[in-house]
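Thread: quick sanity check before group meeting

JM: Hey all, I'm pulling together slides for Thursday and realized we never actually wrote out the predicted structure for the chain we discussed last week. Dropping the sequence here so it's in one place. If anyone has concerns about the input, flag it before I start.
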Amino acid sequence: MTASTHKLTVSRLTKRFGDLEVLRGINVDIDRGQFVSIVGPSGCGKTTFLRIVGGLEHSDSGEARIDGRVIDGPGTDRGFVFQQDNLLPWRDVVSNTEIGPEINGKLGPEQRARTKKLLELVGLRGFESYYPRQLSGGMRQRVNLARALAVDPDLLLMDEPFSALDAQTREIMQTELSRIWEEGKKTVLFVTHQIDEAVYLSDRVLVFGRRPGRVSEDITIDLPRPRPLDIKRTPAFVAYVEHIWKLIENDVRVSVLEEHVG
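JM (edit): ok, ran it. Output follows.
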């Protein structure tokens, strides 16, 4: 596979916070249109890695590149979806979705037409004039996703976006995200604690080891798409989940014990 297929290239990435080494020597290539998830124990640097790729943190050594360009700060080529939606309560669904284009001075008729299509894509047609307080948690995250897509990013960065949702809503949002990804084929980097969520959504799962975070295994998920929810009950799916759990089980136990001792 040639280098030209890589949307994101990360080389020898290391990060410290004072004396604490959070990431060590991360090397990752992600191809255009791939959906890649990161799993690992708490404190292994998953979110820090995502923030470096997003330009919100700087590495101490190594580098991350998008289409060959070194990442040295935030940019409209990346869109963020965080755990908390952070919607502005005084703005309705449409105006929350259009914050990015508005800030960038691109809020014209073409963008307004695109916003309408995006809201249809995420299943919010008919809710354009609703305010955040009138929406369920799942609907708010749909707005959050539409807002990230509104800037038409090359790379979508998602940091545990469904962790605050109840189990049933979370599963529905997984199917919706998978559908949206199938339609647009954005390159996605997705952080989650849920192994089954990572396997269900992804082309690849990067397993991070306990701090300092490093890629202990890069697993290709060879399951057919589109994926119905009942694929989670198939032997092939269960085998992926069990394999990943065995890779991180000891690290998770150690991390939990450290948290309780602390």
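AS: nice. The mean pLDDT is 91. The first helix runs from residue 46 to 53.
JM: adding both to the slides.
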